[in-house]
Specification:
477 residues, alpha/beta, FAD/NAD(P)-binding domain, 3 domains, five-stranded antiparallel β-sheet, 17 helices
Length: 477
């Protein structure tokens, strides 16, 4: 059968764009279908605007806290309208260059505008036109998940999809949720002068993280003026004048919170609707499109990558999955989908995560087979010089094989990929990390200190003490 293309990509977010970058260089004839704007969530509602907002907030906070470094505090006159103008300028600069239709057309990709719906294993309808392809990659992304709270829709609310469309930030904000989006936005908004209240239904913000590190992040945010309520059950939202009133309970006690705006940040839902999946025989679950370890759907010629596959909701994992899907399409069985994906919550300091937490490791292997090593940045010369705080945590088995690494520190995100590789490789905290020379003075030098603590602990083992005594007896002096 002759196909119009070797590959049809549906969705031009992180996964779709990554596939469209790589496929032409493989000699693949590609079409990229997008119903809205090139760039997807990462460019327009996620990573790019949130980090641009955080950059402005970080500088404002540093100016206000300059006395900590021996300088005079400077209270910045914050105009959030100008901050959001800069956010949009950053977005449009990227959209005009690497994330543009023209960029992909120069690569030889045919960019198709319009809604795409899968018809069968080798075809889809895009804006009324039937497109055939040897393979189809579904990369339609995700959207904010909104809980069914009484009065929420009628009162009006913000999500990450609409926050960056505002002319300026509201003077006060209630954030519903306690995950990375909620926590990052809360800190940034507070640093820009917004009164912020965060409501989290669980007992801990950042529930997937090491409990002590999450508690430290909470303490930092509260010290900066964010009001945080955990165990909060939100029941109703209603308009009160020009603002909103949120009612609910905290540990059974009734509360009312008032603010000009409400931001819902309670997770994301995969975009599986309107793709014709059921008619094409493609299986789905509440998490998204069901895929195997090669990212194939239940239809072998159709793959899925990124948020819509429901594995990890991160740009970097979407990019990796897109590359993996391409390899498995055109070089069958060559690579399984990544399972060990690190991530970072971009608060200040950043909170990086790779592998298992102690609780997860104990649940999987048993408490008596797990070791944990912690190194506070209060012992780091660089952290003292920079006036920052944080902590490194490494989780190992009793053979010191690294199972998880969690870092609360400036620039933690830059370390997590290397730590994830070490975990996947089965590196041991000692000797692999103990023998690695980290540059001094850096924050990552703390890894050497932590590995040294593990080495000292290992040397206390009776067998090794016996070997030392034997060596002392046999070796000449």
């Amino acid at each position: 059968m002759k196909f119009d293309y070797d590959l049809l990509i549906i969705g031009a977010g992180s996964a779709g764009m990554a596939a469209a970058e790589v496929a032409p260089r493989m000699g693949v004839r590609v079409a990229l279908a997008e119903r809205d704007r090139i760039g997807g969530d990462c460019l327009w509602t996620g990573c790019v605007p949130s980090k641009a907002l955080i950059a402005s907030a970080k500088l404002a906070h540093r100016m206000k806290s300059a006395s900590e470094l021996g300088l005079a505090d400077q209270i910045a006159a914050v105009d959030t309208a100008k901050v959001l103008d800069r956010v949009r300028a950053v977005q449009h600069d990227i959209a005009a260059t690497t994330d543009s239709i023209e960029h992909f057309q120069r690569l030889g990709v045919d960019v198709l505008t319009g809604v795409a719906r899968v018809r069968d294993e080798h075809s889809a309808v895009v804006a009324g036109r039937v497109i055939t392809a040897r393979f189809i990659l579904l990369a339609s992304g995700s959207r904010p998940s909104v809980p069914p709270i009484e009065g929420l829709g009628e009162s009006g609310y913000l999500t990450s999809d609409t926050l960056f469309c505002l002319e300026r930030l509201p003077s006060s904000l209630i954030v519903i949720g306690g995950g990375p989006i909620a926590v990052e936005t809360s800190q940034a908004a507070r640093r820009l002068g917004v009164e912020v209240t965060l409501l989290e239904s669980q007992a801990q913000i950042l529930g997937r993280e090491d409990g002590r590190l999450a508690a430290r992040v909470r303490s930092i945010l509260e010290r900066e003026g964010v009001s945080i309520f955990t165990g909060a059950a939100v029941e109703r939202v209603e308009l009160r004048g020009s603002g909103r009133m949120v009612t609910g309970t905290v540990d059974g006690e009734r509360h009312e919170w008032r603010a000009h705006g409400v931001l819902v940040a309670t997770g994301r839902a995969p975009n599986v609707e309107d793709l014709g999946l059921a008619e094409a025989g493609i299986s789905t679950s509440p998490k998204g499109i069901v895929v195997d370890d090669r990212l194939r759907t239940s239809v072998s010629s159709i793959y899925a990558a990124g948020d819509v596959a429901g594995r990890f909701f991160f740009t970097h994992s979407a990019v990796s999955e897109a590359a993996t899907a391409l390899r498995n399409m055109f070089y069958p069985g060559s690579k399984p989908a990544p399972m060990l994906v690190p991530w970072t919550t971009f608060t200040e300091p950043e909170l990086g995560h790779a592998g298992m937490t102690r609780a997860q490791a104990e649940a999987e292997l048993g408490r008596d087979r797990i070791l944990e090593f912690r190194a506070p940045l209060s012992e780091s010369d660089r952290a003292r010089a920079d006036g920052v705080d944080g902590e490194f945590v490494c989780v190992t088995d009793t053979n010191y094989r690294l199972l998880g690494a969690h870092v609360l520190a400036p620039g933690a995100g830059d370390m997590m990929g290397h730590l994830a590789v070490a975990i996947g490789r089965g590196d041991r905290l000692t000797p692999d990390f103990a023998n690695a020379i980290q540059v001094y003075p850096t924050i990552s030098f703390t890894l050497s200190q932590l590995a040294a603590h593990a080495t000292y602990r290992q040397l206390r083992r009776p067998f090794l003490r016996g070997m030392r005594r034997l060596a002392d007896h046999l070796l000449p002096r």
